[in-house]
Amino acid sequence: MKMQMVPRVIAKLLIPFILLFALYVQFHGDFGPGGGFQAGVILAAAVIFYGLIYGLPLARRAVPDSLLEVLIAAGVLIYGGVGVIGMLLGGNFLDYFVLDSDPVHGQHRGIFWVEVGVAVTVSSVMLKIFYMFADRANLEDEDVTDETGGGT
Amino acid sequence: MSIGQTIGANLPALQVVTPLLAAPLVLLLRSPRLAYAVTLAASFASLAIAIALWQQVATMGPISYAMGSWPPPWGIEYRVDRLSAFVLLLVSLMAAVVVPYSRTSIAREIPADSHTLYYVMFLLCLAGLLGITITGDAFNIFVFLEVSSLSTYVLIAFGRDRRALVASYQYLIMGSIGATFIVIGIGLLYLMTGTLNLVDMAGRLAAGGTSRPVLAALAFLTVGISLKLALFPLHQWLPNAYTHAPSAVTAFLAATATKVSVYVLIRFYFTVFGESLVFHKLPLPQIMLWLSLLAMFAANAVAISQNNLKRLFAYSSVAQIGYITLGLSFDSVNGLTASIVHLFNHGLAKGAIFLLIGGLVIGIAKPGAVPPAPTFDRLAGLARRMPLTSFGIVLGGLSLIGVPGTAGFITKWYLILAAMESGQWWLVAAILLSSLLAVAYVWRFVEVAYFRAPPAGQEERCEAPLTMLIPAWLLLAATFWFGLDTSLTVGTATEIAQQLVRGQ
């Protein structure tokens, strides 16, 4: 796919908008359809698209595996951290009412950070799964070339 | 509020949150040494919280905790009563014993680059099991069940033997079918009652009478949970999973995973559906009675003919679960007491045995090599080479048989009492007969380890390291302690059983 002009140009054109749409779905999730999970999937889809068109090594350079593993854990910690802060401010676990002097605003603030955590973990898990599957395909390719004794 | 007050007020949440948040933290830390330290701290903190909850429940009655301050039945409720506090204590105790042990054990059994992942999965599994036990919300039970199951599949797949992958896959398929049945059952209940809160659900079911969907829900839940707790003949996943998983994993799962499933079954039968529906209107006690008897005899008989020590004790676990469900089927205070006590007693004894087998395989391995499977031909003359380990396995076996003085005897005693109460004298004979089968498989080990000469060139002592012997012997000591002083186990279990049976 690397040598095809049309997909390369289209991908370059589309990826920024996909990323932007992910952010829209993320931050408009309070008021409309969407939220952290959907935004995370769209975000990962943008990188997966990039990887499909430009090749896995470039995608890996943009979003390396080591970063993904940190993000997977960080998202869960953000989510859980909101809960712990609720406890420290005198409420129960995951209590958003105490996050602000105004309880309604507190709910907004709580769900905002929880959704951030969800988006971070979901996008990195999606991407990690893609990388792992893509690695397997490479392994099989190598096996095939070994057996036939020649290049592709 | 001070930190102390905050912790005190949020104990039910912290019970689950501590291991749950320690897991991503361990993943971030990377270094296996730090991972071990955090896991150790989290599991001991869980044990401390479980003890604190236990004491609170004993003095002040059931605790209800509203997640996110949304009052139940609308929000998710964490509910700790005597029964759940008892199971929380068992699970976190086993975690606190297994984590210090795992370090030496996994150093030999799991590749070094996977050690951090092992601790992550262990913490997630612990969080899932504690969550199932503490939550008062039906759907939450399903979610935590998945958390614990998914991490269990990974833990089993850590086994060095390639068959561990197949065993894990087999468990994944069976476990997923079980989880699907459970979620269908919960869905039907939600449909009929409009609530997911267990206490609320029980009230509405009692008021609404029994309809066909409720009976279907009962059937789905019974089958689904029976798969998870490995009730005969739904136990096929268990022997392979226990045999091929790393030793520390086997010990932890054998002592906790099936026990938590039994807890869920008791919870649904006695708290949600109510005794009268489950035991008086349906032939469920008879079905359970016969399946339990089959488990006790068939699984024990299969255990005798096993060549791998781990697989032998895995089949013995299936049989022991038969004793637990047999106690349930009596629908009496003594029967239920036996079930609840056996959760604890069998957890201790089987945990100790599998921990000792973990030390055993390291002892018989060549230096630096991956520990081999503990097949009987490798165990000849073991008592001379590893006296403490061999003697420990025999002592654990005594508890499985139910010799007086061990914790296993207490269970059998209450089972026999319950059988006599219901006038089924032939059952007394059956219980004693199945114990004889247990004598047979323990004797197989005794015969090989004590009465055969070690193979030439392998006479030197190779006792397991102390870090592995001490946790196992602590559990063994507990097995004997609770065989003599039963105020904690039987006292609590009787109290719980009286509440559950009379509660309706």
Question: Which features characterize this protein?
Answer:
heterodimer, A: 78% helix, elongated, disordered C terminus, B: 504 residues, mainly alpha, two-stranded antiparallel sheet
TL;DR?
With 152 residues, chain A is an all-alpha fold. Chain A has helices at 5-27, 36-54, 56-62, 65-88, 103-148.
Overall form of chain A: elongated
β-strand percent of chain A reads under 5%
> Helical region count of chain A?
5
Order of strands across the widest beta sheet of chain B?
1-2
* Poorly predicted runs of chain A: 144-152
Describe this structure in words.
- The complex is a heterodimer of chains A (152) and B (504).
- By secondary structure, chain A is an all-alpha fold.
- Chain A has one domain.
- Chain A is 78% helix and 0% strand.
- The longest helix of chain A has 46 residues.
- Chain B is mostly helical and 504 residues long.
- Chain B has a domain of 222 residues.
- Chain B is built from 21 helices and 2 strands.
- The longest helix of chain B is centred in the last third of the chain and has 32 residues.
- Chain B starts with a helix and ends with a helix.
- Chains A and B meet through helix 4 of A and helix 2 of B.
List the helices and strands and how they pair.
The complex is a heterodimer of chains A (152) and B (504).
Chain A: H1 5-27, H2 36-54, H3 56-62, H4 65-88, H5 103-148
Helix pairs in contact in A: 1-2, 2-3, 2-5, 4-5
Chain B: H1 3-9, H2 11-29, H3 32-60, E1 63-66, E2 77-80, H4 82-109, H5 115-134, H6 138-157, H7 163-193, H8 198-208, H9 212-229, H10 237-244, H11 247-273, H12 275-280, H13 284-304, H14 309-330, H15 333-364, H16 382-385, H17 387-401, H18 407-421, H19 425-451, H20 466-484, H21 489-502
Antiparallel strand pairs in B: 1-2
